[in-house]
Design brief:
By secondary structure, this protein is mainly alpha-helical. It contains 22 helices and 8 strands. It folds into 4 domains: 145 residues, Up-down Bundle (Butyryl-CoA Dehydrogenase, subunit A, domain 3); 82 residues, no CATH class; 154 residues, no CATH class; 124 residues, Collagenase (Catalytic Domain) (3-Layer(aba) Sandwich), CATH 3.40.390. The strands form 3 sheets. Strands 3-5-4-7 form a 4-stranded mixed sheet, with helices on both faces. A two-stranded antiparallel ribbon has the order 1-2. It has a two-stranded antiparallel sheet with strand order 6-8. The radius of gyration is 24 Å and the shape is globular. Bound molecules: zinc ion. The site of zinc ion has 7 residues, from helix 18, helix 19 and strand 7.
Length: 555
């Protein structure tokens, strides 16, 4: 029987279905418009306070329109591809749109070099001479800062062309490999095949968690070398680019993109390193309550038996989860609640638990339509409800910005995670206040503290790993085994060797931990799988964000 809230999102109201000729035409029209814009960008006049203003303002309006269309189309096909990871047609469209990215890059390169070549006085007078330019002053000033991190124009354009089949292609390879991964697990006496996102580690039965974990690890190990190749080449391209730019610090570029000082990042990690030992008490207590000597990876999401004994169910239906999110957000702010209700009722969320979906969760924006879409796989856990809150936090951030000029709606990743983490914290705190039994309180506290472990230990491990990987990669490629060794060492350091663990291939970074510092009050939120990425093909980090579970091999 269908529930109150649809499990599948509505994409058809955004663009024609990719299987129709109308969609192919929409892509072709976009290509023509973008090609025209790139030609115009090649011929933009030099920036001066007079003379060039009208041409630039008119160009700016068209640039804005086509950028919205580009983002809308990329988000649209990405949504379809995430919902059906093996669909070849969707992949072809993704490739077709990716092949147009150098045209977008050409526009940005022209704009950034023109802005860079103007003196500060010329730029200021130019910006103040037209309402569109004035409204987009911040965007233009950011373009000037970006230009300082660029190669010569010809090299930039060549790099953008090569990136289609180079650095950006690795992201699509990851999506295909992880989407096609099938994991064989036992269910009711039968061997069944599941997608990575469908595997659960929260069974009350330790043997079930353990078997799922081993099956999951075995499956990921089958593509370990391909993943290692991807990581080596992504890192290699970056290091080559940084060398050309004269950058000796591999963090200089991500810090610049997050509009952040190195000192801020270091202050955050040192505060985390100083205080996180308190979490060892939680890990010890959880092991004790589960009746095991030491926690294993597959125990971290296990429900506490003391919580279920007093009537607290570890399962929650999608409708209940949705109602809970709406109610909680409404209590915090009616506007926030109205938005969540709008998103559920207008089918902005894809949550169905079915094979063939990509793993992880994300929120992606359609600035041209003033809408967003949320992707996840709801497997009836409270953790999933937190994920819903997290992604709706991103969506709400976009919603409150929707009337701003499109170029000003963009924000860096560290800021993006603030909205989502905050939304999760609101949900967690309200749940704690309303919980009636000590068992339920225990379950909620367990969830909150495991989030703290995710942020302060898991994300820290990924950061240490990436840091060491970038340094070692400078001298050559690393094998999958060496990557695992580096990850194990990073985990030992980040988890204070608090419990049993083994290595795995990790993902990225520091923005999530930054957000937690910014967004959380008494508790820390975001699930253990938290880490959000900008799409590889975007010229700047956009507000699409995704969460990938850490991929752990062996315990
Ligand atoms: Zn996020």
């Amino acid at each position: 029987m269908p529930g109150k809230y649809a499990l599948n999102w509505d994409l058809d109201s955004l663009f024609p279905n990719p299987q129709t000729a109308d969609f192919a035409k929409a892509v072709e029209d976009y290509k023509q418009a973008l090609t025209g814009l790139a030609r115009r960008a090649d011929e933009l006049p030099k920036i001066t306070a007079s003379g060039s203003v009208a041409t630039w303002a008119e160009f700016g309006g068209e640039f804005e329109r086509i950028e919205c269309l580009a983002t809308d189309l990329l988000s649209f096909i990405n949504c379809h591809a995430a919902g059906d990871a093996t669909n070849k047609l969707f992949r072809q469209f993704e490739a077709q749109l990716a092949a147009l990215e150098p045209l977008r890059e050409r526009v940005y390169t022209n704009v950034e070099f023109a802005v860079r070549d103007a003196t500060p006085a010329e730029l200021s007078a130019f910006i103040n001479a037209d309402p569109w330019l004035k409204k987009n002053a911040f965007f233009l000033e950011q373009r000037r800062k970006n230009a300082a991190m660029r190669l010569e124009k010809g090299e930039e354009l060549l790099a953008a062309d090569l990136a289609v089949d180079g650095i950006h292609a690795w992201g699509r390879l990851y999506d295909r490999l992880s989407g096609e991964l099938r994991i064989k697990v036992m269910e009711k006496g039968e061997v069944v095949e599941k997608s990575a996102s469908q595997i659960r580690f929260d069974s009350p039965e330790r043997t079930v968690r353990q078997n799922n974990f081993y099956a999951f690890s075995k499956s990921w190990k089958s593509i370990a070398d391909s993943c290692a190749d991807s990581l080596n080449h992504i890192c290699g391209v970056r290091l080559t680019t940084y060398k050309r730019l004269g950058l000796t610090d591999h963090l200089a570029m991500p810090l610049h993109r997050n509009r952040m000082q190195r000192g801020t990042l270091e202050a955050m990690w040192s505060a985390i390193a100083r205080r996180k030992h308190v979490l060892l008490k939680y890990l010890d207590a959880k092991a004790r309550l589960l009746g095991v000597k030491k926690l294993c990876w597959y125990d971290t999401q296990a429900p506490l038996p003391q919580a279920s004994e007093v009537g607290h169910s570890a399962e929650i239906s999608y409708d209940e989860g949705a109602e809970r999110v709406i109610e909680t957000f409404t209590k915090f702010s009616p506007h926030f609640g109205e938005f969540a209700s709008h998103a559920f009722n207008n089918r902005w969320i894809e949550s169905e638990n079915r094979p063939g979906k990509r793993q992880g969760a994300f929120c992606t924006g359609f600035p041209g339509r003033k809408q967003t879409r949320v992707f996840m796989t709801f497997t009836n856990t409270y953790d999933n409800v937190s994920t819903l809150a997290h992604e709706l936090g991103h969506a709400y951030h976009s919603w409150v910005l929707r009337e701003q000029p499109p170029f000003l709606q963009d924000y860096p990743m560290n800021l993006a995670e603030t909205a989502s983490t905050f939304a999760e914290a609101v949900l967690g705190e309200q749940r704690l206040i309303e919980s009636k039994s000590s068992g339920e309180k225990l379950a909620i506290l367990d969830h909150m503290l495991s989030d703290a472990v995710a942020f302060l230990m898991n994300i820290h491990a990924r950061f240490i790993f990436e840091n060491n990987f970038h340094q070692e990669r400078g001298t050559g490629e690393l094998t999958a085994e060496r990557l695992s060794e580096l990850m194990l060492a990073a985990q030992k350091e980040a988890y204070l060797e608090g419990w049993m663990m083994k290595a795995g291939i990790p993902t990225s970074g520091f923005p999530s931990s930054i957000s937690i510092s910014a967004a959380c009050r008494s508790t820390i939120s975001l699930t253990r799988s938290a880490t959000c990425f900008p799409p590889a093909s975007s010229p700047w980090p956009k507000k699409a964000a995704s969460r990938f579970p850490i991929n752990i091999a062996g315990c």
